[in-house]
Design brief:
Blueprint lengths: L3 E3 L7 E3 L9 E3 L9 E6 L2 E6 L5 H7 L1 E3 L2 E4 L4 E8 L4 E6 L4 E3 L3 E3 L2 E7 L8 E9 L2 E9 L13 E4 L2 E4 L4 E9 L4 E3 L5 E5 L3 E6 L8 E8 L4 E8 L10 E3 L2 E4 L4 E8 L6 E4 L4 E6 L2 E6 L8 E9 L2 E9 L9 E4 L2 E4 L4 E9 L5 E4 L4 E5 L3 E6 L8 E9 L2 E9 L22 E7 L12 H6 L1 E7 L7 E5 L12 H14 L5 E4 L12
Parallel strand pairs: 1-3, 7-14, 16-22, 24-30, 32-38, 39-41, 41-42
Antiparallel strand pairs: 2-5, 4-5, 6-8, 8-12, 9-11, 9-13, 10-12, 13-14, 15-17, 17-20, 18-21, 19-20, 21-22, 23-25, 25-28, 26-29, 27-28, 29-30, 31-33, 33-36, 34-37, 35-36, 37-38, 39-40
């Protein structure tokens, strides 16, 4: 069955119907045009009806507003949120201050607008207003911004100087003053005998010598724009016997030998005492000054010594420069002065006697190798493969002295041809051939065969069946009674070898029965 409920609703009213089990409830609204939007939801056994929006102006005016009503901020840039409640009607917002900005100027319904607040450059506070108008009403939000805080007061002026008083002697000198301040400062010395040298941490005071017998006082004024400090300098006066010492000469340039020099001291009769800083100088005061005695310098280096003359706390210095001991003469001997080298590679020795241990040896020849010892030079020469001789110089040097050794290496000897009247018969050349020359007689001091030797020369050709390679072995038997056989060995062998090579027998190996020194080999 059906049931009907006649309900008069007003905006904002929530209706809850109890006992309504059936989902087919019918409800009728009077003045339906005033409530166009209705949200329906079931709750339990009833029907809940919420009114979400109304168009009744009287209701809107009663529920229109903007919060918060007041915003406070410091002088820095800031942002604030303003909430607008408008019950669905249109609204507009505006600011009356240029330093207040809005991200939204109009809208409908509830909203949030962001208000930007610029920095306040002034020391004074300021107030601005944002007005929101809607439904015939105007809501006001006030913004209070504090002024910029005043700058901190400047620090109290400060000027510290240390020390503030000096008691100085009659002679010229320098003192130092430290300054600490939080403002620019300057230092001035009115007295003419005072000079001020300013730097980043203070200043120096230079005072001149007091020529008067009376003491004197000077002042240095240190000041900023607000503060002034004064430094006092008191300088004692000169006494009748307080004249400065004058030494003549103040520089002694002496030889390496022992000697005596005189230094005059002015004024005569003044109180002073000499002090030597080195052991090789001794000082003896005399009426007009002092005698300076210097020992001989045995070292090869010059040396410097100083003598200080002290009078009433001040002093003068005499500088003594002594020359070095003379160097002994250089001894340099090289033997032999000439080297005659054969064409073959070899080793020779030069004897060196020198007073200097750091002597050197050199040569520009690339075919020589030099090896230095304490007293010798080992000369290693490469073989001269050419027919011409070559020449070079070996230089031995010690300090400012040089010695030269002339080296000459002979070239290869050109072989002298021989013209023997010989005929060689080789019956079979398929295998190795042994050629034996016996005897071969040479004319003394000549590489040519004598006529008798030519007639008596015989050549025996024997077959060697088991020879591993094809070659020729030549055995030359020399005259055992010949005195210069060893000297002429190479020339004879070379001549015979060339002869057989001309006959068409290549790679002949000569065996002459002698060793390398020219002596006959033992049997």
């Amino acid at each position: 069955m059906g049931a009907g409920i006649d309900v008069r609703l007003t905006p904002g009213v929530q209706l809850f119907v109890e006992g309504a089990r059936s989902p087919h409830l019918n409800y009728v609204f009077r003045r339906e045009a005033a409530f166009p939007r209705i949200r329906r939801s079931r709750a339990g056994f009833g029907l809940r009806i919420d009114i979400l929006q109304a168009r009744d102006r009287r209701y809107a005016r009663r529920h229109f507003g903007a919060t918060p009503a007041e915003v406070r901020a410091d002088h820095r840039p800031a942002a604030a949120i303003v909430h607008i409640e408008s019950a669905g009607i249109k609204w507009r917002a505006r600011s009356d201050a240029a330093w207040i900005s809005l991200d939204s100027w109009f809208g409908r319904g509830d909203a949030r607008i962001t208000v930007g607040i610029q920095e306040n450059p002034s020391l004074h506070a300021r107030t601005g207003v944002v007005r929101v108008t809607g439904g015939g009403r105007t809501e006001t939000v006030r913004f209070h911004q504090a002024g910029r805080p005043p700058p901190p007061p400047p620090p109290a002026p400060r000027l510290d100087v240390s020390p503030v008083r000096f008691n100085v002697t009659v002679t010229a000198g320098t003192e130092r003053v430290r300054v600490s301040a939080n403002a620019p400062w300057d230092a001035v010395a009115p007295a003419g005998w005072l000079t001020v040298d300013i730097d980043s941490t203070g200043f120096g005071i230079r005072y001149a010598e007091n020529e008067s017998l009376l003491p004197r006082t000077g002042f240095v004024t240190v000041s900023t724009s607000d503060l002034v400090r004064t430094i006092e300098i008191v300088q004692s006066g000169r006494t009748p016997f307080d004249e400065p010492l004058d030494l003549a000469p103040q520089w002694l340039d002496i030889s390496s030998t022992a000697r005596t020099d005189t230094v005059r001291v002015h004024p005569f009769g003044a109180e002073w005492s000499p002090v030597s800083a080195v052991s090789w100088l001794s000082v003896e005061p005399i009426n007009e000054g002092m005698i300076v005695r210097s020992e001989a310098n045995d070292d090869f280096e010059p040396r410097i010594g100083m003598i200080e003359v002290v009078s009433r706390g001040s002093g003068r210095i005499v500088v003594v420069t002594q020359a070095a001991a003379p160097l002994p003469p250089v001894v340099l001997r090289v033997e032999p002065a000439r080297l005659a080298l054969p064409s073959a590679a070899g080793v020779d020795t030069l004897g060196v006697r020198s007073s200097e241990s750091d002597w050197t040896v050199s040569s520009d020849a690339r075919w020589l190798t030099l090896e230095r010892t304490d007293t010798t030079v080992v000369v290693r020469s490469d073989e001269n493969a050419t027919f011409g001789s070559r020449l070079t110089v070996i230089t031995v040097a010690a300090r400012d002295m040089n010695r030269s050794v002339i080296v000459r290496q002979s070239g290869q000897r050109r072989p002298d041809p021989i013209r023997p009247d010989l005929r060689i018969d080789v019956t079979d050349t398929r295998d190795c051939v042994l050629i034996r020359l016996i005897p071969v007689l040479f004319e003394r001091n000549s590489t040519e065969l004598t006529p008798a030797a030519r007639e008596n020369l015989t050549v025996n050709v024997n077959m060697l069946r088991d020879c591993p390679s094809r070659n020729v072995e030549i055995d030359v038997a020399l005259d055992p009674d010949e005195d210069d056989a060893a000297l002429k060995r190479r020339e004879r062998i070379t001549a015979i070898r060339n002869f057989y090579l001309e006959q068409g027998i290549p790679e002949a190996r000569l065996v002459d029965g002698l060793d390398e020194s020219g002596e006959r080999r033992p049997e």
